[in-house]
Design a protein that fits this description.
The chain has a two-stranded antiparallel ribbon with strand order 1-2. It has one domain (about 25-455). By secondary structure, the chain is an all-alpha fold. The chain contains 17 helices and two strands. The longest helix has about 45 residues, at about 25-70. The protein is globular, with a radius of gyration of 21 Å. Its main location: membrane.
Length: about 450
């Protein structure tokens, strides 16, 4: 079985994931992985922020509204990549030392399957573009822009999916430095391409959509240099994907995918509730807040992604004290970075909002100024929850990880949006996220404490 754990811990202690455990402590290794993953995820999120800024300048508040309406599609693309990438990479880490024959063609199978699925999805999105944008909440003021934007960015879907798979596997193959380089190269390149299409040749929102196509393509080009990594175990094989392997990977990656998809689902429901309570400017304000959240959560996600391969590896070797130490270091780093993020956002909230308010809309400023401090109380809990969910995946607790993701993104959050909106209006909508994240942190903390207590007894 792909998910069967390694049974001989002694054989894997000398060399794992490209590092000599005798010369590098768990704490230093966590810092090594986390620093590179935070740099990579933060780099990618900076492109999102700059793209949002460019759109606000070129297309104003309605352009921001259009972007926010279509944004859930990117969560679908990313979610599919994470579904197979995180789950497949976890299986890869659990087996690469003791049972490499089990995962010889897994990477290739997942890449081929995801690319094929992405092409089919892109075709369907183009055919049904009009009903889809109507479903997403477009009105007469935003419908035409949304249709054009959706039809172009849909073709980036296959590339985003395989890019996420490649990043996760290469990171777990002991080469986090390359994934960092790929993401930073992608970010710097696409920012220039974005500017050229939007302002250089004056394509505005259509230019931003075209630039999206280059983003994962550039990352994949850099990641292709992994074949020169001397300690790599990844191999490419032209194979027909096996549904059993797809299922095994998806089962472990479903929690990460649901986390990503929950962002898109929450954006959709936020948009609709805000349109009922207010107008397009409230949605634009939420667009500003949600894009800032992408940067903040990218930092937290970088920490979680740095912890995951190490926790998987140590769990596969039955080194449970090292598993606990990995989590402890992750929690300390997560809370430290969350505190810094919160202080910056509260202290400089008006300048940060005005960066995206190129049209100087007083309504957008008013909504965002009130919403931002309430919404980002969640930063501490959100960061811990991302870590908890990926950690549970790393130690093979797929069911617990899945349960937290379902509670976090759907069962608690969606009712909270509607109930708190009824009770406190727009302020209640902003408060739905910190309320949900706090509840999930309490539940996740209890689950992980019980899991670690059981492991240490064993």
């Amino acid at each position: 079985m792909l998910l069967k754990q390694a049974s001989n811990k002694g054989d894997g202690s000398k060399f794992c994931g490209g590092f000599n455990m005798n010369s590098m402590s768990i704490t230093k290794e966590v810092q090594h992985y986390v620093s590179r993953n935070v740099a990579a995820t933060l780099g990618m999120s900076m492109y999102v922020i700059i793209d949002t800024l460019f759109i606000s300048i070129a297309a104003g508040a309605l352009g921001l509204t259009t972007l926010n309406l279509v944004l859930p599609l990117f969560n679908v693309f990313n979610g599919m990549g994470l579904l197979l990438g995180v789950g497949g990479a976890t299986i890869f880490s659990l087996n690469k030392v003791m049972h490499p024959e089990r995962i010889k063609s897994l990477f290739s199978q997942l890449m081929i399957f995801a690319f094929t699925f992405g092409l089919i999805l892109a075709t369907l999105l183009n055919i049904f573009a009009i009903p889809i944008v109507n479903f997403l909440g477009a009105d007469d003021a935003t419908r035409q822009m949304a249709i054009i934007y959706l039809r172009i960015v849909s073709w980036s879907g296959p590339l985003y999916m395989i890019n996420y798979i490649a990043i996760n596997f290469i990171r777990n193959d002991g080469n986090p430095t390359l994934t960092m380089k790929a993401t930073l190269t992608e970010t710097l390149s696409v920012i220039l391409i974005d500017w050229f299409f939007i302002f250089g040749i004056g394509l505005k929102l259509e230019g931003a959509a075209l630039a999206v196509l280059f983003s994962p393509a550039i990352s994949l080009a850099v990641l292709s240099f992994h074949h020169k990594f001397t300690k790599r175990q990844l191999e490419w094989h032209w194979v027909v994907p096996q549904l059993r392997n797809i299922w095994c990977s998806a089962r472990l990656g479903v929690a990460s995918a649901l986390n990503e998809l929950s962002t898109g689902v929450s954006i959709y429901f936020f948009n609709h509730v805000l349109l009922q309570l207010a107008n397009n400017y409230a949605v634009a304000a939420y667009g500003v807040i949600s894009n800032i959240a992408i940067v903040v959560l990218a930092i937290a996600n970088g920490v979680a992604l740095g912890v995951q391969p190490l926790a998987s590896r140590e769990f596969g070797k039955h080194e449970y004290k090292n598993v606990s130490m990995t989590l402890k270091n992750g929690i300390i780093i997560t809370l430290f970075l969350a505190t810094i993020s919160f202080i910056i956002l509260i202290t400089f909230k008006h300048p940060i909002i005005e960066i995206f308010n190129a049209s100087h809309s007083s309504q957008l400023l008013a909504y965002a100024s009130v919403g931002l401090p309430i919404y980002f109380i969640s930063v501490f809990f959100s960061a811990l929850n991302l870590l908890f969910i990926l950690f549970l995946t790393a130690i093979g607790s797929a069911r617990a990880s899945f349960s937290l993701s379902i509670l976090r993104g759907y069962i608690i959050l969606l009712p909270a949006i509607f109930i708190l909106a009824k009770v406190a209006g727009i302020n209640g909508v902003w408060a739905a996220v910190p309320f949900t994240e706090f509840v999930i942190t309490c539940i996740g903390g209890i689950i992980i404490y019980q899991r670690l207590k059981k492991l240490n007894k064993d």
